[in-house]
Amino acid sequence: MNKPYAIGIDLGGTNLRVALVSRDNEIIEKIKKPTSDDIVASVIRSAEGIFSDEVAGIGIGVAGLIDRENSRVFTSPNLQAVEKVDLVKELKERFSVPVYIENDANAAALGEMRAGAGRDFSSFVLFTLGTGIGGGIVYNRKLLNVSAEIGHMSINADGEKCSCGNYGCLESYAAGRAILSNAVSLLETGRESLLKVQCGGNFYKLTAEDINKAALDGDNLAREILKTAGRHLGIGIANVINIISPEAIILSGGLTGAWDIYVQEAIKEASKRTLKELFERVRILPSLLSDDAGIIGSAGLVF
Ligand SMILES: [Zn+2]
Fold this sequence. Notes:
39% of the residues lie in helices and 22% in strands. By secondary structure, the chain is an alpha/beta fold. The protein has two domains: 5-112 and 291-302, ATPase, nucleotide binding domain (Nucleotidyltransferase, domain 5); 120-287, 2-Layer Sandwich (Nucleotidyltransferase, domain 5). A five-stranded mixed β-sheet has the order 3-2-1-4-7. It has a five-stranded mixed β-sheet with strand order 10-9-8-11-12, sandwiched between helices. The chain has a two-stranded antiparallel sheet with strand order 5-6. 45% of the residues are buried. Residues 152, 162, 164, 166, 169 line the site of zinc ion (ZN).
């Protein structure tokens, strides 16, 4: 009795995505809405809309650190309401099917393995590059059920304190939040830049996309900011390759839009810092599924 579908849920700090997904990773139906404070009710209501007798189970990817023993969320800085609820228990009670929980970047890695850029690799590491940096590790065609908090690897012993308690975390240098705060502090020193015009003088309105656009238009300040972030990302990539020796590094998330400057700089830096033999066999490439990786991967937890 192999039921043909699963419900995949991607619960992030900004958006909730819920989808009906087939065993061969086809998205049959998809709902996307802003994440609400009443997480349980909102998730259940969305799942009810697509649930049927044909659903084998439900998988959830949550932005947060997962307590694997108790199938709950330890901490979720961007979605604190989820720490207080037992989402797995509530969904099991409502739908009477198996329910699985994973970290959202881990789920996205499983999605890329099943249907995306990771299909042809036996081992790879996914980096999610957004406001922060997340990660997921696939080894010998299996998602490793480990934390894979790549963004919180320290790359500077004397760096600034991160919200996680560590100092000099990769994401404090290479993620979207770092890129924006660098831009604001450099602009506040009075540096000339196209960015000033772009944001109409209000530096706090800038987005990572604005910075990429200015960089592509040849703006020196924007290029410098993206290159600095990319260089730090490259240090993180080199560390991961040296530890895991994957066949591929897959990069996903909004910042991969800045591939030509930010990612190219990261690749250049990683090539200098990775053991030569390991760098020669690794491929660094973009995700194929982008926003759908999470729901396909969460559904994949069921299959
Ligand atoms: Zn940290």
